[in-house]
Design brief:
There is one protein chain. This protein is about 40% helix and about 15% strand. With about 270 residues, it is of the alpha/beta class. Strands 1, 2, 3, 4, 5, 6, 7 and 8 form an eight-stranded mixed sheet that branches. Helix 7 links the parallel strand 4 and strand 5. Helix 2 packs antiparallel against helix 8 and helix 3 runs parallel beside helix 4. It starts with 17 loop residues before the first helix and ends with a strand. The relative contact order is 0.16.
């Protein structure tokens, strides 16, 4: 599915990449000194980032389970990051083994791990697209080789949109998300989480500065802007809420006692 031109893309170790920075925060080994340097700087500025990385992963797992239990059997995860168990396909296929999952990311190291590690059930399929989230035509076109876009799909954009800018002169992130949602059939789901300045403004301002100095765009968003991603969709309860509070399980309730995580989360259904 990746195509011959993507078979062995070069890993750029001169600049940090969000997937590898997240990998360091999650205790992984698939990162480089440039990633660790940025990860440590942001951690020093914002002590919530380790909790945030873990909270995002658990939110993805809970939201995926909710979609699968509602009958969705197809999943498209854009900005998947370096595989960390349990992966989205493992969660979906634990509910419904026949589930089909497509991952998409633009970091070559993610591609290599995906090719080696992302194995689905015999009944289902697990595929990978090496592409940038800013190229919906490519992602949707390649994903359609595995997924049936006439039937519901759960689209997962977890911890992705804060790396995309606003407006016609930038990435037009709201228009980009709408392009993906418009391609989905009724009954599909949108799963989103996003860093916000609302809950920890000083720390997020410092983290944003570190990201941007490293050459990594970073755009925390307030509640009103995050809510706008769900325009025209039916939000599932409890609505848009700090990530710990979205249908928490015992582990999330316990983690909440450690302190805030400046991340909003939400899940919505396309009518």
């Amino acid at each position: 599915m990746t195509g011959p031109e993507d078979a062995a893309p070069r890993i750029d170790t001169s600049r940090p990449h969000p997937a590898r920075v997240y990998d360091w925060w999650l205790g992984g080994k698939d990162n480089y000194p440039v990633d660790e340097e940025l990860a440590r700087k942001i951690l020093a500025a914002d002590g919530t980032v380790l909790r945030g990385a873990r909270a995002n992963r658990r939110f993805m797992q809970r939201a995926t389970r909710v979609a699968a239990e509602a009958g969705v059997r197809q999943f498209l995860d854009i900005g998947t990051g370096i595989p960390t168990e349990p992966n989205l396909h493992q969660v979906a296929q634990s509910v419904a083994p026949e589930s089909k999952v497509v991952y998409a990311d633009n970091d070559p190291i993610v591609l290599r791990h995906a090719q080696a590690l992302l194995r689905g059930t015999p009944e289902g399929t697990t595929d990978y697209v090496h592409a940038d989230a800013r190229d919906p035509e490519k992602i949707l076109g390649l994903a359609a080789e595995s997924l049936d876009f006439t039937r519901p799909i759960a689209l997962s954009l977890v911890a992705l949109t804060h790396y995309l800018s606003d407006g016609p002169d930038g990435d037009d992130v709201h228009g980009l998300v709408k392009t993906y949602v418009d391609a989905l059939a009724p009954g599909s789901y949108l799963i989103l989480s996003q860093v916000t300045p609302d809950l920890s403004p000083e720390a997020i301002a410092k983290a944003t500065e570190h990201f941007r100095r490293s050459g990594t765009p970073f755009f925390p968003r307030p509640l009103t802007e995050f809510h706008h991603f769900f325009d025209g969709l039916e939000l599932l309860g409890p609505g848009v809420i700090p990530v710990y509070g979205w249908r928490p399980e015992p582990e999330d309730v316990a983690a909440q006692a450690e302190g805030i995580v400046p991340v909003y989360a939400g899940v919505a259904r396309k009518p």
